[in-house]
Amino acid sequence: GDSVTQMEGPVTLSEEAFLTINCTYTATGYPSLFWYVQYPGEGLQLLLKATKADDKGSNKGFEATYRKETTSFHLEKGSVQVSDSAVYFCALSSGAGSYQLTFGKGTKLSVIP
Amino acid sequence: EAGVAQSPRYKIIEKRQSVAFWCNPISGHATLYWYQQILGQGPKLLIQFQNNGVVDDSQLPKDRFSAERLKGVDSTLKIQPAKLEDSAVYLCASSLDTATGELFFGEGSRLTVL
After folding, report:
1. What single string gives the DSSP state of each residue in B19-75?
2. Nearest residue, CB atoms, A43 vs list B4, B31, B48
3. Which residues of chain B have pLDDT under 70?
4. CB neighbours of B99 closer than 8 A, spacing ≥ 6?
5. Chain B interface, best mutation among A2, A21, A100, A102, by max B CB count within 10 A
6. A106 vs B33: CB contact, 8 Å cut-off?
């Protein structure tokens, strides 16, 4: 079945540091890939997505590229801020026309001033 | 625009008791999902509705869990009888367009079973 593997957290970075959160997946066919973020006290929200190989999703300074050859969708940001502190979830959907998401376990990011 | 509303936010019960969670999706969203998120894990889909019909309930433990969406708007998830391993956050999500993959999540209902 479909699965998503994320790097273990928690991750603690200083402000303005470079962020990478690794995500790899196993799926049948050609899934769509997503990063969702959960800020403290809030619900999950979509951060970015990519629907086909070599697509790059980007939002709020975050980027992730759909790499079919390595089955990866790593999340990156060049300079993190304290406000980026949150839990980040990698997810995929391989259901045609019906977006049932399979999530990774989540990676908690803490950014310190 | 109002987001996905869920209640209660927190619930503590003893094993073998019953509990119900309510979800009101964003207005106009035809698709509604219930996810279970156990501490330290990612959310796992329990059931998906399209309007008031069930699209997928293959991962719903039907011996104790039930869900309904009678009028195609709000939904209720029930657990009876609860087990210790049901302690989790129950997330409701809705989507307008299944072609985009963007689900809108509520804040969740945290269940503790003692």
Report:
1. EEEEEE--TT--EEEEEEE-TTS--EEEEEEETTEEEE-TTS-TTTEEEE-TTSS-E
2. B4
3. 1, 97-101
4. A97
5. A100
6. no
